[in-house]
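User: My collaborator sent over this chain with a note saying "see what the structure looks like." That's all I know about it. Can you take a look?
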Amino acid sequence: MSKKLMSNKSSSHKWVITLGAVFMAITGYAQDDSDTSGSILVDEGLTVHEARTLDDLLESIRERRDVENLAHQQRIEAFERQVADQENLFKEAEDELAAAKLRTTDLETTISNNDATIADRQQELDQKLGSLRELFGVIQQVAGETRGTFLGSVVSAEIPDRDIFLNNLAQKMGTAMELASVDEMNDMWSLMLEHIIATGEVTRFTGQVLANEGGKKETDLVRVGAFNLVSEKGYVNYDFNTYQITDLSRQPSGEFTNTAKSLHRANPGKVVPFAIDPTRGSILSLETERATFGEMVGSPFGGIADGKCWLPFCDGQGGMVGSIIIMVGIVGVVLAVWRMVVLFFVRQKVNAQRQDFDNPRDDNPLGKLLQVYTENKDVDSETLQLKIGEAILHEMPALTRNISLVQVISVVAPLMGLLGTVIGMIQTFQAITLFGTGDPKIMAGGISTALMTTVLGLCVAIPTVLLHALTSQFSRSVIHVLDEQSEGLIAEHAESKGTPVREVTKQSD
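Assistant: Without extra context I'll predict from the sequence alone. Here is the result:
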């Protein structure tokens, strides 16, 4: 009995220790996680009391177990409700899928029926149109080609916006859904006929011209068929990209610009010569890019002002050699003209002196010669001849001054031109060596230098040769008068002294 009692006590102690351990664990867990489990148990209606005895602890455990069972049961019921809701949602989704499949089937059937209807209607349309379908393509092609012709014609400068109707007509025919009306075809035919007539007319109209300095201005223009537009200043250009009338950056050479100005000033019905550009401005653009005479020769101080060189006319195509040739030519021409003017007046004075032979003046060579004769009338014929010869020799430098220099310039100028030609060819071959012959513009600089210096040399040589010949002729004419008069004076003096002329001649020889 005592053993049994001891065993019961030991069992009781074990249970007490076990419950204490469980209580301590639960209490520690509750302390560590008081924000979660404690709140859950409180939410479930459990009131937490501090256990002071084992019975209180046992009662607390039982209450906790009941509360947890209740919470578990509630969670199970909530999960079962969610499962039921998900089954309802799944069933609804299945129903929607079935309805969508049914609608898809109906739509596919509708599409198939519509395709069949469209094919039937298209076949019916083709049957009704028949050969008229070709008319769509013909009108569209003709409208497109005519529109391009209008846009690329100078006539559009006077008659603009003709392409809008043709563009709309071509787009309409491109849809192939509606035939062109008779009025539309008549309008297209009228536009084509109007253009054909306009290309053969010379008309005057007022147009907006885009100036080089900016801005547009109203200008009186003359259109020459489908070729050119002319203003009072010369040619103007019609830009086929912007469809605007613009001033040329520079007018072509005078031989063409003068014809344009004459045409603009001409009265209606008057026939005047005019230079036509049949390439719609291509040749005219090339003419404006051609170097002018001033650009080829250069300007007196252009290169010096720009700092390119230090000689006049060195900014031309001839370069430094061309500049030297021009300056030498100017010097030669000035000398020749100056000597011709001087000799002309000298000859006039000599001729006047010949008319007044008895009154010698010292303002001309013949007068000085007569003064020598007057001062030496008493000497013998030989001495007189020497005195007169000395006087003639004294006048010779003044009569032949700088004439030989003009001759030298006429000879040196073409040689300098040849020098420039050689220099230009050297530059050309250097360019070929560096860049090859693919681009002719690279070689153009050297070739232009070679040709321009040759031209300048010849342009200097030809007039200086002529001027030298004229100047020499003027000088020789005066010298011839002096020789003639000196021989006459010697002969007259010999006769007056009784000495035959032939003896005087022998003595002089």
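A starting point for your reply to your collaborator: Confidence is low (pLDDT under 50) at residues 1-16, 21-46, 501-509.
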